[in-house]
Structures are given as structure tokens and as C-alpha cells.
């Protein structure tokens, strides 16, 4: 696809899946970064080091997930520029996103000592684990500009409908990380420092490869006037869109952390059972998020091209494939979830509790499908302010439902989570008609 393509947007099942499926696979490679480090350090036989990697990886997951929202904002702005046929702005969008990523990454590096100390204190880890995790954190933190920059690069590739290239880059990062981790941790005996260094070098390699790929896709006209990159109005738009989505993501994480904390307060068995169920549900979330990513590109391009009919068809396509996956996924969890639980844990008590709450957890895909679909639609359309405000409304619904359901314990907690997922989709769906009228007026 030309970076200057414009006019009516192609909205077909084939094109939708061509974007969605590579995006799904690309996102499934992300957990491999922490998994490889955990596996390698686990071979050393030191529980302290293994715990330190888990704590350090969790902290980076939190930091990078919040700023990972830059992918959504970049995808929406890029897709709209592509829809307008503005090849210069397609390139400038990436440059501005990378500038923002670099600035955020540098701030994280500068503040990493007090941030790390506060995080470890809140986690309540032992002195030995904290000391080892601090080593991991102090090394891996220097990859922050590159790790966040890779989100922007992936978002740009989504915006130009090249999720296949994005998948290739994610696989490249995961492969580099795996090879370096095995060499540094097991062969050269660098321990936890080796695991952190491997991850940092893999992110750096991914950024370099991503920039080379972007230059090749852009072609000879890759140079940009500095005045275009630093255009005040565009910079404000970039910061505003991404800032709103960051706040939205922070609210989402608040709900998920509260959900986990309430399970922990019940007892260890309930916490473990909820973790098993949530990990099962997250597999379906990768696919729904892939459909959301396709929506970012197709809907964003339709907005840029001022193709109202194409936008409406895009919304219908996203919902069609979302429900087409979510309903069978819920049925599969209901029918086969017990076997998955048995495979994930051998603890009889955890198995029993997980099976008791499986019917509620299995409803998550079908209750949350509209939330995923409209996340992509809103991000692609850069309706970021409404996205932020409606997430706040859904979070309020969650806490209200949890308060009402407190007497029912973990059942009430799962019902509150389902209400949150459904509420997100309903609130966004109700707001869409007004936003379409405003956008295509």
C-alpha cells in the first residue's frame, strides 16, 4: 500500500483479517520476553534471583504497559494521515512519536532510583529479593527509550496496515532476547544482570531494525523538514491524544490491580484460582486485541479519507469478527476450561475453587468483546478524550458493583469485573453516533 493512498477505504473481511491476525501473533510474542528470563534464571536454582526477576519484570510491565498506549495513539494518527493521502504527515507522525518516546524514556531513566525504591517498598519484598531486583531494574531501565519507541514503531506500522512487518519485528526482538539471555545468563554466568542486559540489548536491536524497516518502507523521501516535525499544533495533538490514552490505560490497570488485590485478601487459594482463570481469559484477549488493532487502522484511515460509509462498514466488520470469536471462545472455556485448569495447576484446592468460578470467568470474552472492538474504533478515530472519560465511567461502575457485591465474596468480585467489561462497551457504543456526526459533519 502506498503511503500516499487516499480516497474510499477498502473494507473487506480479507483485508481486516490480513491486519488482525499478524497483530494478534505480534502481541503474543510480548510475554516471551519475561518468560525467557524467568526460565533461564530459574535454571540457576536460586529462589531469590527467580523472585527478583519476577518482581523486576512486573515493574517494567507496569511502566511499559502505561506508555505502550503510544502504540494506539500513533496508529490512529498515522492511519488518518494515510487516509488523507498526506505522505509527509505519515512520516512526521512517526518522528513526533519517537521524540515523545525518547523524552519519556529519559525521564524514566533520570527518576528510576526513587521510582524503583518506592515500587519495591510497596511490593513488600524481602531484602535479598529487593537487592537482586534493584540490579535487574537499574540495568534494564536504560532500554526505556527503546522499549517505548518500539511501541511507537509498531503503532506506525499498524497505521500503514503493515502488521505483518510489525510481527516480524516482534519475533526478531524475542529471538534476540532469547539468544542473549541464554548466552549471558547460562553460558557466561552473568546471573540476573545478564537477563536484564539481554532484554535491554534486544529492545535496542528492535528499535534499530524498526527504523531501518521504516526508512525502507518510506523510500527515498524519508527526510523531513524540522519545522514539520516540530509543528506546534501537531505536537500538541500528539501529546494530547497519547496523554488521554495513557490516563485511560492507567484507569484500566487500577481496576485490574484492585481485582488482583481483592483476590489476595480473600486467601491464597482464591488468589491462585483467580490467577489461573485470568491467565486463561488472557489468551482470548490476545485475539480480541488483534481485532481491535485492525479497527485502529481501518477506522482511522476512513476518518482521514472522510469516508463515512467506509467507517460504518468498518465498525460492523469489527463487531462481526469480535462476536464471531468471542461466542465460541466462551463456549470453549465453559466446556473445556476444567481440563485447562487441571493442566495449569496440580493443587486440588486451587482446582476446586477455579472450577467453581469458571462459569463467570468464561463469560469474559462475550461480555468484553464490545469493549475491545470500540477501543480500536476510538483509538483509530483519535476520540481519545471520550475514550478517557468513558473509561473513568466504567471504572466507577466497577467499584460500585464491587461495593454492592461485597457480601458475595469472590463471586461478587467476578461479577463486578464482568460489569466493568460490559460497561466499557455499552458506554462507548452509546457515544458513537454523536461522535460519528461530529467527525463526519
Automatic annotation (TrEMBL):
Q: Which UniProt keywords apply?
A: Membrane, Transmembrane, Transmembrane helix
User: Is Transmembrane helix tagged as a keyword?
Assistant: yes
Question: What is the membrane topology listed in the Swiss-Prot or TrEMBL record?
Answer: Multi-pass membrane protein
Give the UniProt subcellular location, in the record's own words. Membrane
Q: Which domain of life is it from?
A: Bacteria
Q: Where are the transmembrane segments?
A: 16-41, 47-67, 97-122, 134-158, 165-186, 192-214, 245-264, 276-295, 315-336, 356-377, 389-405, 411-430
| Similarity remark | Belongs to the multi antimicrobial extrusion (MATE) (TC 2.A.66.1) family.
What PANTHER family does the record point to? PROTEIN DETOXIFICATION 44, CHLOROPLASTIC, PROTEIN DETOXIFICATION 44, CHLOROPLASTIC-RELATED
What this protein is called in its record is MATE family efflux transporter
Q: Which organism is it from?
A: Ancylobacter oerskovii
Amino acid at each position: 500500500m502506498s503511503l500516499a493512498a487516499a480516497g474510499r477505504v477498502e473494507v473487506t473481511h480479507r483485508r481486516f483479517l490480513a491486519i488482525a491476525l499478524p497483530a494478534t501473533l505480534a502481541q503474543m510474542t510480548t510475554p516471551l520476553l519475561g518468560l525467557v528470563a524467568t526460565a533461564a534464571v530459574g535454571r540457576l536454582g536460586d529462589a531469590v534471583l527467580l523472585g527478583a526477576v519476577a518482581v523486576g519484570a512486573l515493574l517494567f510491565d507496569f511502566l511499559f504497559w502505561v506508555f505502550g498506549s503510544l502504540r494506539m495513539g500513533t496508529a490512529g494518527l498515522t492511519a488518518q494521515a494515510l487516509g488523507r493521502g498526506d505522505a509527509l504527515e505519515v512520516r512526521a507522525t512517526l518522528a513526533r512519536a519517537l521524540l515523545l518516546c525518547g523524552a519519556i524514556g529519559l525521564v524514566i531513566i533520570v527518576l528510576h532510583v526513587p521510582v524503583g525504591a518506592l515500587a519495591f517498598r510497596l511490593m513488600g519484598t524481602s531484602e535479598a529479593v529487593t537487592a537482586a531486583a534493584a540490579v535487574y531494574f537499574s540495568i534494564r531501565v536504560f532500554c526505556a527509550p527503546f522499549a517505548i519507541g518500539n511501541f511507537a514503531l509498531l503503532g506506525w506500522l499498524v497505521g500503514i496496515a503493515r502488521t505483518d512487518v510489525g510481527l516480524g519485528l516482534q519475533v526478531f526482538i524475542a529471538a534476540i532476547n532469547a539468544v542473549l539471555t541464554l548466552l549471558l545468563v547460562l553460558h557466561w554466568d552473568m546471573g540476573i544482570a545478564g537477563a536484564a542486559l539481554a532484554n535491554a540489548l534486544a529492545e535496542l536491536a528492535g528499535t534499530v531494525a524498526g527504523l531501518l524497516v521504516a526508512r525502507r518502507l518510506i523510500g527515498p523521501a524519508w527526510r523531513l523538514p524540522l519545522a514539520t516535525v516540530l509543528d506546534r499544533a501537531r505536537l500538541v495533538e500528539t501529546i494530547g491524544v497519547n496523554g488521554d490514552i495513557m490516563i485511560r490505560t492507567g484507569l484500566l490497570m487500577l481496576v485490574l490491580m484492585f481485582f488482583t488485590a481483592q483476590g489476595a485478601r480473600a486467601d491464597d487459594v482464591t488468589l491462585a484460582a483467580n490467577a489461573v482463570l485470568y491467565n486463561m481469559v488472557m489468551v482470548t484477549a490476545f485475539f480480541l486485541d488483534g481485532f481491535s488493532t485492525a479497527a485502529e487502522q481501518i477506522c482511522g484511515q476512513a476518518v482521514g479519507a472522510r469516508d463515512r460509509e467506509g467507517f460504518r462498514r468498518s465498525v460492523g466488520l469489527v463487531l462481526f469478527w469480535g462476536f464471531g470469536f468471542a461466542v465460541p471462545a466462551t463456549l470453549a472455556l465453559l466446556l473445556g476450561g476444567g481440563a485447562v485448569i487441571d493442566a495449569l495447576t496440580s493443587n486440588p484446592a486451587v482446582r476446586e475453587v477455579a472450577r467453581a468460578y469458571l462459569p463467570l470467568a468464561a463469560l469474559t470474552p462475550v461480555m468484553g468483546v464490545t469493549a475491545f472492538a470500540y477501543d480500536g474504533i476510538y483509538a483509530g478515530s483519535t476520540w481519545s478524550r471520550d475514550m478517557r472519560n468513558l473509561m473513568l465511567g466504567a471504572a466507577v461502575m466497577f467499584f460500585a458493583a464491587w461495593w454492592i457485591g461485597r457480601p458475595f465474596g469472590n463471586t461478587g468480585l467476578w461479577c463486578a469485573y464482568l460489569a466493568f467489561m460490559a460497561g466499557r462497551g455499552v458506554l462507548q457504543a452509546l457515544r458513537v453516533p454523536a461522535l460519528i456526526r461530529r467527525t463526519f459533519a
